[in-house]
Amino acid sequence: MEKPTEQKTGRLPNLFELFSIFTQNPNLITMNRLISLLFIFTAIISFGQNKNESVFSSDPGNDGKWLLYKHNNEALYTIITNKAFQLLNERDKKIERLQTKEDWQSYQHSLKGKMFPSISKFERGPLNAQITGTLKRDNFTVEKILFESHPGFYVTAAMFLPKKRQNPAPCVIYCSGHSDLGFRNEVYQRVIFNLVEKGFIVFAFDPIGQGERFQYLDEQTGKSIIGGPTTEHSYAGVQTLFTGTSLADYFVWDGVRALDYLETRKEVDMTRIGITGRSGGGTQSAMIAAFDDRIYAAAPECYITNLKRLLQSKGPQDAEQNPYWFIKKGFDHPDFIHIRAPKPTLIVTTTHDFFSQQGARETFSEAQKSFVALGKPENIQFAEDMGKHESTKKNRETVYAFFQKTLNLPGDNKDVEIEPFTLEELWVTSTGQLKTSVKGKTVFDLNKMYFTKEELNGTFLKEKLRELSGVEFNRKLTAAVYTGIYKTENHEAEKYFLENDKNDFALPVYVIKNENPTGKVLIWVSGEGKKAILEHQYLNYYLKEGYTIVTADLPGTGELFDKEFTGDGFVKGVPFNYTFGANIIGKSIPGIQAEAIDLLVQFAKQKFANTQIDALTDGNSSTAMLVFASQKKVFGKFSNEHLLKFDQQFIETEFYDPEKAFHIIPGSLSYFDYSEASQKLDLLDN
Questions:
Q1: What is the CA 146 to chain-centroid distance, rounded?
Q2: How many angstroms separate the CA atoms of 180 and 386, rounded?
Q3: What is the CA radius of gyration of the chain?
Q4: What is the pLDDT at residue 644?
Q5: For residue 84, is it within any domain?
């Protein structure tokens, strides 16, 4: 095999081709040189511990850091939150302009059309509901219920029926928080039993990934293969993002179908329906009540805050709490309440919840505006008690009183002690898990079933890639700050960090010198960061070709990787909380990284004027480079072979690779396979 003629192919050789070049051309590399290269490779790895490798080192001998950039590793989150705050400020200005009843009614109408648009693809098939068993207590009975919210997609639920009740009686839907046990958790049973004791019918159902609805069940252990509820949600939720939808759609639709089931029960007064739940149950109750008009009274607990305070404190939560492009579409937590105004709503909070209490107070203050304008200021209420992320006795009694008043069932609101059922007693299925009893579909199956694809070419593909990635080339390089040289045994790199006019982060850069430069520059980015290029086994090849190498740590890699970042969306160490945060502002990880590549190109053009610039990626940075190259034609030659692994298999494979998934643009698989995109797009500077 001869060396590729780059002038003819218009691209650089990939690593597999290079291996073939070396093995089939013994004059290029002898065994001794191979051993030497392996020795150098090992030496470079050990050299990597050198304190001088950081571009932010201001005092190499003592590992001092440039003070302003000590937290530059938080770049990815900073970029996400800055954009979020910009969009939320724009929303706030819009809210300030709403004054009259007509203003708010128009705003409500606009919300309803775009909060959960992809739910429209779901159809109301037969519920095929069945009662699988009955439990009896002195004052109430429990019917164990199984129904289908989608064809073959089962929901496990229980209807708690007080023996002494109105006919028909008001009903409260209870949504469970993030517990493996679902509604069987003792703290949830306490609220359910108290409501039943006061004469309410209560309908409780297991959320996806909880109770008897594990999506990734290990049949041998009875536990989830993936992890706890938030991990199950996030793993399934990322896969739904690939199709341009959100796991929130499936959570809300389960609630809609629960309401459909209640309509079949003559015991239930459908004009007096309430909904409540704590934590993840607060999320569900807020969203379902916002979507379905049949909910009259809603009391979400320990969830409502606002997104500014959430992003400042806890950060984006697991998948179902982040509807697709939520902030980009102009939404915030108060909109869950505005959209249903002036129906009765109680925001239930605790002072030291990890959902910011300041945000909850601000949301209540804003929500009052729509209720006042619509003539029912008394219908928006706020409960606050001392406590952490928990259900306090005072708050429980406030919830009981709220439903007693709004659903017209007066009585004593005292919280009483209860004797909970055991886990097994409340099993709806014979085994305690759908997968080992009635089988049925999972979210993975539904996502694949609802997936549709539209092939795009040329200009349309370029525009869609820009739209879905959220890339914005709006940073201008203001300074390339030189900070010294980092030496390994065989190479040396000039160190820079690039400042930009947004002042949100500084991009760490290496310029790897060439002793015999030919005037060619190779922008080479790796998913492992800039240091990986210095350690790469084929670095010498490109240097021998006369290239000066320019490389950088893209946000989320190298010196821009935040090892302290945490969240409830991590799967096998992959921080999908970033993915959810980027998506709700209409951006993506590859789009954000493509913006950093733009800064790197600006630097290369400035430092190496009138020089041919080529590009090479390896690892997971290939998606970001594709985004950049699709929008700006600056490269003479371009190699991006890694894209072959990003295709529809991520929809068709239940246990996908989280690390690779982190670099897929949400919504993109509905329009193109990455392996085809680079062929359809004109990526070269002709």
A1: 30
A2: 26
A3: 29
A4: 52
A5: no
pLDDT in tens, 531-540: 999 989 889 9
Domain of 607, CATH number, reads 3.40.50
Tally of CA atoms within 13 A in the half-sphere of 502 that contains its CB: 18
Residue 51: the pLDDT is 55
Same domain, 52 and 138: no
All residue ranges of the chain with pLDDT < 50 are: 1-9, 11, 15-49
How much is the pLDDT for 12?
Answer: 55
Residue 591 has, within 13 A of its CA and on its CB side, a CA count of 26
Domain end marker among 450, 479, 504: 450
Quote the CA–CA distance of 658 and 217 in Å, as a whole number.
Answer: 18
> Does residue 399 contact residue 299 with C-beta atoms inside 8 Å?
yes
Euclidean distance between CA atoms 490 and 493, whole angstroms = 10
> Going by DSSP bridges, is the β-strand pair 153-162/201-205 parallel, antiparallel, or unpaired?
antiparallel
- pLDDT for res 645: 64
Instruction: Give dist(CA 367, CA 347) in Å, integer.
Output: 10
Pairwise CA distance, residues 21 & 64, whole Å: 43
What is the 8-class DSSP label of residue 684?
A: B
Which residue is it, tokens 């008009």?
A: 293
- Integer Cα distance of 432 and 536 in angstroms: 51
Residue 128: name the closest of 154, 108, 110 by CA: 154
The pLDDT value given to residue 63: 65
Q: What was the pLDDT predicted at 13?
A: 55
